Amino acid sequence: MKDPFQKILSNNVQVFYGFKDGHAVVKVRVPPNCPVFIWYPASIPVEAIVRFKTNFEDAHAYGMRPQGERTMEKPQEFYAREDCRGRWGYRDGHVELDIKKVVWIPLSFDFEEFKLAKAAMDEAHAWAQLPQEVRDLQGVA
What domains, with CATH codes, occur in the chain? Predict the structure, then answer.
């Protein structure tokens, strides 16, 4: 049995991709940074990966600006689906993601951590864009 590709973004977030149908799985440690926790998995379908990609690109471009040019008055909020939303546009370049599991669970990524998240998103997106026959041959069921 093949295992999916795994990217560890922080102590609280892991991303898995490489599935035949192109979806990804994000596992969030709930509650964050607590000695007693559970991993909450959220399946992200291909359509949501595509929607996330644009927002990750925009947040990355904003964070790469010199700090003096990060002057957005109000952070940009985006929704990939009804149980996952995010915000970017902060002066320090950090990005916030919220996952809903009964209540909203906030996750904050400083810009260096977010660069890891963007790299994982780029890889998951590239995998999802492969032709179906390639994913069928090399992907995880």
Answer: 5-138 (2.30.31)
